[in-house]
Amino acid sequence: MNFMCRNNQNNTRWLITMLIILTAWHCSASGADETGKSSKQELASFQQVLPPPIPDSLYFAGERVPLWHFDVRESLDRELMVNVYFHSQTLRFIKLAPRYFSVIEPILKANNIPDDFKYLALAESGFDPRAQSPAGAAGIWQFMKETAKENGLEVTVEVDERYHLEKATEAACKYLHESFAKYGDWTTVAASYNAGRNGINRQVERQKETHYYNLLLNEETSRYVYRIMALKTIMEHPARYGFLVDEFYPSIPYHLVNVNGPVTDFAEFAKANGTNYKLLKMLNPWLRETFLMNKAGKQYEIKIPEEEYRK
């Protein structure tokens, strides 16, 4: 008897619930009929998201990008969408570009490396001079420790020249030239910077193909060169992609102080040279400790910001 009462009560609650849902739906549908046109107009005016334009033609390091291949076009389109609509990050890249490109460009030119490789440095580190990957790659050019040493950089507890913009760029030029001698085209060279030469070599042997556009690569490397191309496209024509920037972060003027002995305290060293520890480290991220033992008596050039530059 009690069981039957509970069933009747449950059935009654279910019927009441269904009536409430149907009534709400009917009211909603009626309102939509009356104001549907207005609602659609409001929705359309709230946000209009347009696909970024794909250039009619594109060159990377003097090599034409085969945008007539559907897979190439779609891959570039993907990276354009990601970077155009990551507004804060891309704006920051545009603002920082003069500070870092003013250093990188002349070094690339002096070493006969195509200027477009400055965008590779950006893709690697996001203009973060202290960037370090989970795998241990470091600096603007994201060198691994052993690769850095092989290309002439000092990497110790006290001094890590992977974080030295000028010296790391010189080392990157050496590495890129060696890769070009092997592959013969700059696009595959760029891919090998991400996957490593051994990684590209394995895929070349496996797939019997030699060019980046014809190789099936892992997700990261398959997107890597297209990201570089997307950054180049956007930063060469920022207004075309909706970035209207009239203030950039300037280069920091500095002079060099030669050091060929130990520095016991860089905070005191900074004060003695008319600056502070924060700014000293900002300009010299390759100095990894608060001191420099320099037992070998090696000469180092330390950047000191010019007085009053912060104003």
Domain unit count: 2
The SSE string, one letter per element, is HEEHHHHHHHHEHHE
Tell me the distance between the termini.
88 Å
CATH topology of the largest domain: Lysozyme
How would you sum up the global shape? globular
What is the CATH top level name of the largest domain? Answer: Mainly Alpha
CATH architecture of the largest domain: Orthogonal Bundle
Query: Strand order, biggest sheet?
Result: 1-2
Question: What is the SS-derived class?
Answer: mainly alpha
* Beta-strand residue fraction: 5-15%
Task: Report on this structure.
The protein is built from eleven helices and four strands. The chain has helices spanning 2-46, 70-84, 87-110, 117-125, 145-150, 165-183, 186-195, 197-207, 219-236, 266-272, 277-283, and strands at 59-60, 63-64, 254-259, 300-305. Helices cover 55% and strands 5% of the residues. It has two domains: 59-241, Lysozyme (Orthogonal Bundle); 254-305. Strand 1 (59-60) and strand 2 form a beta hairpin. The chain has 311 residues and is mainly α.
Give the secondary structure arrangement, pairings included.
Elements: H1 2-46, E1 59-60, E2 63-64, H2 70-84, H3 87-110, H4 117-125, H5 145-150, H6 165-183, H7 186-195, H8 197-207, H9 219-236, E3 254-259, H10 266-272, H11 277-283, E4 300-305
Antiparallel strand pairs: 1-2, 3-4
Helix pairs in contact: 2-9, 3-6, 4-9, 6-7, 7-8, 7-9
